[in-house]
């Protein structure tokens, strides 16, 4: 798993000669045709990825490749195999000298590659059919509706839709949603892992418990502690809303629980007597969890599996963007470059977006400033290079990533005493350059508090996979129109206007295209992903493009898009309005 | 704008006299209405509905001499669907009776202006129906064949010829077209007003702004109507309320079920073209694009029948007028696309309006006419399926004849209200079904089409068992019946792809079922049959039935008699089998769709005293038909009773035990001419008996079979069936069934006189069997029904049914041959010699196939397989 980490665009930390990070935006597909990674550095990745499929080549060569291609192209996995082996055949196996040329002229190479594939398969191009596209898009979708009591939903949240579309294999994004049972409110979060998914997985499992515990009043904490002490049944703290694919690791639950217990015991001891401030609770929870991750890795575990797990968690990283909604109080705690955005419906019915988080990356001046402030002036130049922290890491805040937090000595000690898998791994042994005054990274979130208004209709939490492809304004419009149902478009009436048949036809065709894309999805997040991946230059979903993007094999998919994880929370305007009135 | 469209302003000026009589102001001014004249206290006939249908009925009734008629309209005359409809009179209709109605309407409207002096906007433009596919062209050719033999000019033309007739159409995607030069355009509201004027001149009173709240009924007869302006007592009531006919039918204490439901229908009006379109330009019908296009005031009027109709008023929301329905452009988009594809030159044409005009549809796409089965004197004419103008004239005429003479001059069974029962009157059913029916107007009409909605309503207790064994289902009168069984591992085409005019994909499946019926034994679930029990305390049952049926029913107990239930003219009202269960009770089996009609017929004619009881026991019995030479073995093993022909001769009925179940009525008939038995099983035993039969039958090679096999067997034996071959205009003499008529049974019976006369004078048509000679089953179009028959090159009649005979390995068509005088066209007596001495051809979609005519079945071919004394000529199934 760690071997794949060199593919991670977020952290270009490969041993040997430094690889240059590249900007993901430049790799995007332009106007429907295949563009090419501008930096050639990605191509060796492909060749790295080759060996496994390439050995299959002799098997496949004996078959009629065209037939295979045309038959398997509808099956993602098989397709991948045939696709790759052919690639190997065309450029690496039979013509090694061209490999070099290819590296020099990547664009041409890529086109040839595409062409070769076309040639080998039947001349007709193949696409995933709309049902196939839908089954891919909908595989991870999840919807939750807040249950109603007495026909009334008294929560300010109507429910949420969430979904994720992998680009990495396995996906490195995680998502969580839960209702706090001992306090009011609902927690929702997206987590974008890098250098593997271990950290994101751990954070997605643990963070909400830390937050919930931070929010609990002293009495409840005592009650829980007493219950644990006397072996009684524990009060449930969280009600999770999970997709079947969202899993919790069973092996580590004991370890995690003990860390959590230590936390609340400390909270009990610290009893300040004051009511808990949500903002503070969020910050404390984030910091505490990161601290626990770090400590667990330092202490290790007698169980070798767990020992390896806690190390993987600590050496990988994850950003987190978490929303806590309680009545009209919306808190968003963000660490890293995922983003929360509020969808607001203006009086004229149009949609606008309000940012509820700041990205922690090189584009954020304050963030760059902060990092520079925390380190000696001598390091100013090496701190941020190529828009990356120490020239390596894109997010400026993250969970895990002890490589940017621990001292060199500590890192060396842990790696050496750690299991062989860790010790053999080049990545873990690699120390970031110009590493003088750790820690360089923190998990402390920025928390933004927003009082919900009736016009605030929904909240979108999404990892940067979405924000790279779509502007928040478009996101607001697309989700807003979806939720209010564009299919209830204002009916057209000719009235006294001069309209020709042709004009009317054009208008109607356009309206129908919009409706049909809405009708396909029952889930706002799915709808958004469909747009994010399939939008053409006109802002409407282009099926051909969508189909192409989704039929990319895993190692190529990563070049054209990132993992996308989206949660769309829909607010209950009636309740929000009522709460607001009460407060007035 | 509509006032201009309808030009009723102009009409009013021209007819002050009528206006005075109806005494209702038609202007839209806000001045107070003058007080309307009061309603008469009584009338012979009250017609409810002043649209094209109501006025046509009034017109024709008054023509036939009935004068004491009141027509009531809740709003204004011709203000409902009639006012909004597109005004196309089109005769290209696939069903023969509809074709005749449309043809009559066309002729009526043509002379109406001359007759009444009222402008009707009649313009003979002709119509061009376009075919984008070969299948469509075939269906057009079939219609063209039947139009031509009716004497209606019609030709199949090439796309280029179509382009010459209409300069605007794009022909690149066409394979052909049908041109009917006689089709016309009218202003529908004006036609309706002209009919009303003519009727009022004949004495019909017309009252607008008078709505009928309900119909008064006493002792099963109409006695009057209650309106918002008082009561009118009357003998006859005619419900022509269009989309409100259903509501009105349910409003009285005695409910009359009229299954109609409205859907929104859209058409587009444009401003004139730069070069205004000539008003005489032919109307374009593009069924594959689902649209029609006619010229309208220099611009066009174009509407269509979309795939996703919008039913409305399901919950019965009544509105006086329907102008306030909304335009729905998004809904119209596919039709607009089709229009621009057909006439790309119209892109720059300016839109005037999208009209939303509800149309009324029926569950089977045919209109509804006739007398209520439950209330005498309650007549209905409604559910025009958006062809009200085309049918209005002819339908009004037939209904008027029906009321005045007791029967119309044509066979209108396909339109008879009694083809439906209360089972079709659920709002949910209607809503779902009309959503299927409306698109069907433009869909390709292929043989053996089954509705997909409103299914699984009535089922046999064996339904699940049969379904699990691969049964494919069709529906008759709401009852699911098996077509055939798809063997395991075999797949048939999807429903949409299976549409064909050629050899169907089930050909071999049915072939093997037929083979099994001939050589071993098959089971067919025939539970859908209508079953009545008639019994009395004394001899009343026998006496009454002897009068109602033509065959002699005074047979020993345990005998089964095939007999016709004839009308006064000797025509078949029903064709049934009657078993004498004991001296005083009879078990009567009729075709499935006779449930309502036969019941009403008997109810109205049986003496209404308490000593005679009639019960509908259809639901009490499951019927299994064991067909085949080994049926006797299966049954005897299951019953331990002797079933040999000596003990159980043909046409016999016995109650016996089958398996553990007692009281099974076993009849030695199969409705196919093959040896075998019908088992009438009380439903709680159905599964048991079926399982026993299947288990025991295993060693005799038993298998399930469906109605398609039955049909093939029946038609190759020259068995006619009611509703398809036989109708109220066919007598036993005309179809070779004299032996089922006992003229000398010593008792008078209905139709006796007519039959006696026919026996003396001869018949004017003769039911004949045709074997197609040079027809290639694999390659040629299959016959269906309604194909013209040519004798020595001259048209002599039409086929009524057809099937492939797996025994003869030929197609068999059944049909009637008439003899028209070569010069005068007068109908002459058809003799056996006339039939036998002729060279015959059957015209299938314009292609003629040689056929051999036969008046009697191939006895030699089948005798060695048939049992002695087998003389069974009956069958009940229709396609």
TrEMBL record, chain A:
Q: Which family is it part of?
A: Belongs to the PP2C family.
Q: Where in the cell is it found?
A: Mitochondrion
Q: Which InterPro entries match?
A: PP2C, PP2C_BS, PPM-type-like_dom_sf, PPM-type_phosphatase-like_dom
Alphabetically list the UniProt keywords: Acetylation, Calcium, Hydrolase, Magnesium, Metal-binding, Mitochondrion, Protein phosphatase, Pyruvate, Transit peptide
Q: Which PANTHER family match?
A: [PYRUVATE DEHYDROGENASE [ACETYL-TRANSFERRING]]-PHOSPHATASE 1, MITOCHONDRIAL, PROTEIN PHOSPHATASE 2C
The reactions it catalyses are: O-phospho-L-seryl-[pyruvate dehydrogenase E1 alpha subunit] + H2O = L-seryl-[pyruvate dehydrogenase E1 alpha subunit] + phosphate
User: Locate the PPM-type phosphatase domain: which residues?
Assistant: 157-571
Principal localization? mitochondrion
Q: Which top-level enzyme class is recorded in the Swiss-Prot or TrEMBL entry?
A: hydrolase
Which GO molecular function, any one, fits this protein according to its record? Answer: [pyruvate dehydrogenase (acetyl-transferring)]-phosphatase activity
A GO CC term?
mitochondrion
Question: Gene3D superfamilies under this entry?
Answer: PPM-type phosphatase domain
PROSITE patterns from the UniProt entry: PPM_1, PPM_2
Q: Which SMART domains match?
A: PP2Cc
Role, per record: Mitochondrial enzyme that catalyzes the dephosphorylation and concomitant reactivation of the alpha subunit of the E1 component of the pyruvate dehydrogenase complex (PDC), thereby stimulating the conversion of pyruvate into acetyl-CoA.
| UniProt signal peptide | none
Protein name listed in UniProt: [Pyruvate dehydrogenase [acetyl-transferring]]-phosphatase 1, mitochondrial
- Family matches, as Pfam families: PP2C (PF00481)
Give the gene symbol. PDP1
Give the EC number: 3.1.3.43
UniProtKB/TrEMBL annotation, chain B:
- Repeat as a keyword of this entry, yes or no, is no
Annotated ranges, domain FAD dependent oxidoreductase central = 405-460
- What SUPFAM superfamilies does this protein map onto? Aminomethyltransferase beta-barrel domain, FAD-linked reductases, C-terminal domain, FAD/NAD(P)-binding domain, Folate-binding domain
Determine if Secreted is one of this entry's keywords: no
Domain FAD dependent oxidoreductase stretches: 45-402
State the similarity comment.
Belongs to the GcvT family.
Official protein name in the record? Pyruvate dehydrogenase phosphatase regulatory subunit, mitochondrial
Annotated source species = Apteryx mantelli (North Island brown kiwi)
Ranges where the GCVT N-terminal domain occurs: 462-745
Record keywords: Pyruvate
Which part of the chain is the Aminomethyltransferase C-terminal domain? 765-858
One short Pfam name that applies is GCV_T_C
């Amino acid at each position: 798993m760690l071997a794949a980490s060199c593919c991670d665009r977020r952290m270009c930390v490969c041993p040997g000669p430094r690889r240059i990070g590249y900007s993901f935006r430049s790799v995007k597909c332009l106007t429907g045709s295949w563009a090419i990674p501008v930096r050639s550095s990605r191509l060796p990745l492909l060749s790295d990825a080759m060996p496994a499929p390439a050995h299959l080549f002799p098997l496949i060569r004996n078959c009629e490749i065209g037939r295979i291609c045309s038959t398997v192209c509808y099956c993602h996995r098989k397709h991948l195999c045939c696709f790759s082996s052919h690639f190997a055949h065309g450029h690496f196996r039979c013509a090694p000298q061209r490999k070099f040329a290819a590296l020099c002229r990547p664009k041409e190479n890529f086109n040839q590659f595409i062409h070769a594939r076309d040639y080998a398969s039947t001349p007709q191009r193949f696409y995933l059919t709309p049902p196939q596209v839908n089954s891919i898009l909908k595989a991870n979708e999840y919807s939750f509706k807040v249950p109603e009591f007495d026909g009334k939903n008294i929560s300010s949240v109507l429910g949420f839709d969430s979904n994720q579309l992998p680009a990495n294999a396995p996906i490195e994004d995680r998502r969580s949603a839960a209702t706090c049972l001992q306090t009011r409110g609902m927690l929702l979060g997206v987590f974008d892992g890098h250098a593997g998914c271990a950290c994101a997985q751990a954070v997605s499992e643990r963070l909400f418990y830390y937050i919930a515990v931070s929010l609990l009043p002293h009495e409840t904490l005592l009650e829980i502690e007493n219950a644990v002490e006397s072996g009684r049944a524990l009060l449930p703290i969280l009600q999770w809303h999970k997709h079947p694919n969202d899993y919790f690791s069973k092996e580590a639950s004991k370890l995690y629980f003990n860390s959590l217990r230590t936390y609340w015991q400390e909270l009990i001891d610290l009893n300040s007597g004051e009511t808990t401030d949500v903002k503070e609770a969020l910050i404390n929870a984030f910091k505490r969890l990161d601290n626990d991750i770090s400590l667990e890795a330092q202490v290790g575990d007698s169980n070798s599996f767990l020992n390896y797990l806690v190390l993987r968690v600590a050496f990988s990283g994850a950003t987190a963007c978490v929303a806590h909604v309680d009545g009209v109080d919306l808190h968003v705690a963000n660490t890293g470059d995922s983003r929360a955005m509020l969808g607001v419906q203006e009086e004229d019915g149009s949609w606008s977006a309000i940012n509820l988080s700041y990205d922690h990356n090189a584009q954020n001046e304050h963030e760059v400033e902060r990092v520079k402030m925390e380190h000696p002036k001598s390091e100013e130049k090496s701190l941020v290079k190529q828009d990356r922290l120490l020239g390596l890491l894109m997010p400026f805040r993250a969970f895990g990533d002890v490589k940017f937090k621990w001292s060199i000595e500590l890192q060396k000690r842990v790696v050496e005493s750690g299991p062989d898998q860790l010790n053999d791994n080049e990545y873990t042994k690699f120390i970031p350059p110009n590493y003088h005054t750790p820690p360089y990274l923190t998990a402390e979130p920025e928390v933004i508090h927003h009082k919900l208004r009736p016009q605030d209709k929904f909240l979108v939490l999404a990892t940067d996979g979405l924000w790279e492809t779509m502007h928040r304004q478009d996101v607001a419009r697309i989700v807003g129109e979806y939720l209010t149902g564009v299919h209830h478009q204002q009916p057209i009436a000719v009235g006294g206007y001069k309209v020709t048949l042709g004009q009317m036809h054009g208008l109607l065709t356009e309206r129908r295209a919009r409706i049909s894309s809405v009708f396909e999805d029952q889930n706002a997040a799915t709808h958004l992903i469909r747009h994010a991946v399939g939008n053409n230059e006109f802002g409407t979903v282009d099926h051909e493009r969508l189909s192409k993007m989704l039929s990319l094999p895993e190692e190529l998919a990563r070049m054209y898009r990132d993992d996308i994880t989206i949660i769309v929370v829909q607010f209950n305007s009636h309740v929000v309005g009522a709460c607001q009135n009460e407060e007035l | 704008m509509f006032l201009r469209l309808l030009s009723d302003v102009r009409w009013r000026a021209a007819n002050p006299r009528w206006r005075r009589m109806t005494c209702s102001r038609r202007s839209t001014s806000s001045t107070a209405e003058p007080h309307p004249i009061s309603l008469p206290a009584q009338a012979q006939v009250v017609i409810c509905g002043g649209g094209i249908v109501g006025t046509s009925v009034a017109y024709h009734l008054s023509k036939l001499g009935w004068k004491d008629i009141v027509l009531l309209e809740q709003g204004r005359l011709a203000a409902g669907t009639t006012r909004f409809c597109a005004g196309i009179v089109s005769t290209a209709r696939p069903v023969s009776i509809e074709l005749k109605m449309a043809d009559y309407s066309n002729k009526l409207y043509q002379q109406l202006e001359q007759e009444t002096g009222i402008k009707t906007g009649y313009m003979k433009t002709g119509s061009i129906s376009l075919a984008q596919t070969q299948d469509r062209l075939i269906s057009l050719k079939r219609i063209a064949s039947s139009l031509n033999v009716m004497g209606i000019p019609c030709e199949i033309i090439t796309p280029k010829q179509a382009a010459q007739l209409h300069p605007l159409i794009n022909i690149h995607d066409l394979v052909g077209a049908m041109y009917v030069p006689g089709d016309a355009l009218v202003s529908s509201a004006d036609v309706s007003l002209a009919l009303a004027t003519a009727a009022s001149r004949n004495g019909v009173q017309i009252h607008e702004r008078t709505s009928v709240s309900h119909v008064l009924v006493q002792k099963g007869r109409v006695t009057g109507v209650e309106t918002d302006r008082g009561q009118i007592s009357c003998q006859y009531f005619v419900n022509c309320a269009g989309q409100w006919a259903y509501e009105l039918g349910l409003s009285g204490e005695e409910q009359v079920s009229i299954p109609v439901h409205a859907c929104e229908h859209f058409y587009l009006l444009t401003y004139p073209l730069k070069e205004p379109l000539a008003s005489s330009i032919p109307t374009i019908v593009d069924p594959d694009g689902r649209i029609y296009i006619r010229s309208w005031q220099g611009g066009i009027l174009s509407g269509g029948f979309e795939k996703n109709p919008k039913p409305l008023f399901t919950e019965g929301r009544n509105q006086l007028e329907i102008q306030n329905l909304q335009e729905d452009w998004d809904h119209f988009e596919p039709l607009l696309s089709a229009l621009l594809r057909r006439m790309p030159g119209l892109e720059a044409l300016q839109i005037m309006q999208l009209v939303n005009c509800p149309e009324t549809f029926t569950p089977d796409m045919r209109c509804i006419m006739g007398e209520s089965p439950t209330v005498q004197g309650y007549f209905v004419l409604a559910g025009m399926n958006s062809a009200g103008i085309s049918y209005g004239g002819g339908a009004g005429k037939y209904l008027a004849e029906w009321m005045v003479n007791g029967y119309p001059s044509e066979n209108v069974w396909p339109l008879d209200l009694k083809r439906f029962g209360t089972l079709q009157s659920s709002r949910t059913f209607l809503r779902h079904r009309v959503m299927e029916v409306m698109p069907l107007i433009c869909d390709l009409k292929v043989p053996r089409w089954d509705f997909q909605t409103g299914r699984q309503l009535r089922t046999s207790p064996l339904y699940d068992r049969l379904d699990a064994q691969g049964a494919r289902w069709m529906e008759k009168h709401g009852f699911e019946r098996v077509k055939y069984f798809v063997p395991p591992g075999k797949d048939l085409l999807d429903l949409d792809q299976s549409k064909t005019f050629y050899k169907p994909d089930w050909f071999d499946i049915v072939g093997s079922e037929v083979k099994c019926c001939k050589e071993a034994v098959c089971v067919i679930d025939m539970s859908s049959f209508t079953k009545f029990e008639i019994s009395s305390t004394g001899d009343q049952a026998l006496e009454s039935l002897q009068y109602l049926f033509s065959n002699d029913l005074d047979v020993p107990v345990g005998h089964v008699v095939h007999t016709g239930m004839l009308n006064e003219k000797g025509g078949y009202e029903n064709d049934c089998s009657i078993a004498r269960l004991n001296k005083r009770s009879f078990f009567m089996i009729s075709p499935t769709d006779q449930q309502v009609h036969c019941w009403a017929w008997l109810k109205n004619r049986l003496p209404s005293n308490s000593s005679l009881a009639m019960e509908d026991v259809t639901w009490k019995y499951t019927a299994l038909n064991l067909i085949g030479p080994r049926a006797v073995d299966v049954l005897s093993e299951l019953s331990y009773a002797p079933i040999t022909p000596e003990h159980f001769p043909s046409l016999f009925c016995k109650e016996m035990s089958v398996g553990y179940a007692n009281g099974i009525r076993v009849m030695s008939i199969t409705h196919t001419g093959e040896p075998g038995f019908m088992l009438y099983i009380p439903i709680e035993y159905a599964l048991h008996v079926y399982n026993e039969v299947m288990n025991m039958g295993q060693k005799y090679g038993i298998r399930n079979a469906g109605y398609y096999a039955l049909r093939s067997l029946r038609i190759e034996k020259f068995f006619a069936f009611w509703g398809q071959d036989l109708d109220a205009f066919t007598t036993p003499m005309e179809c070779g069934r004299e032996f089922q008529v006992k003229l000398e049974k010593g008792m008078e019976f209905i139709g006796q006189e007519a039959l006696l006369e026919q026996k003396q004078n001869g018949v004017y048509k003769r039911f004949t069997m045709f074997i197609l000679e040079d027809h290639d089953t694999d390659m040629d179009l299959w016959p269906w029904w309604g194909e013209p028959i040519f004798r020595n090159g001259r048209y002599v009649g039409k086929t009524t049914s057809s099937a492939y005979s797996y025994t003869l390995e030929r197609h068999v068509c059944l049909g009637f041959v008439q003899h028209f005088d070569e010069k005068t066209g007068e109908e002459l007596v058809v003799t056996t010699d006339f039939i036998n001495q002729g060279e015959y051809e059957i015209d299938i979609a314009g292609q003629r196939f040689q056929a051999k005519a036969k008046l009697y079945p191939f006895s030699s071919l089948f005798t060695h397989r048939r049992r002695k004394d087998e003389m069974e000529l009956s069958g009940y199934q229709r396609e």
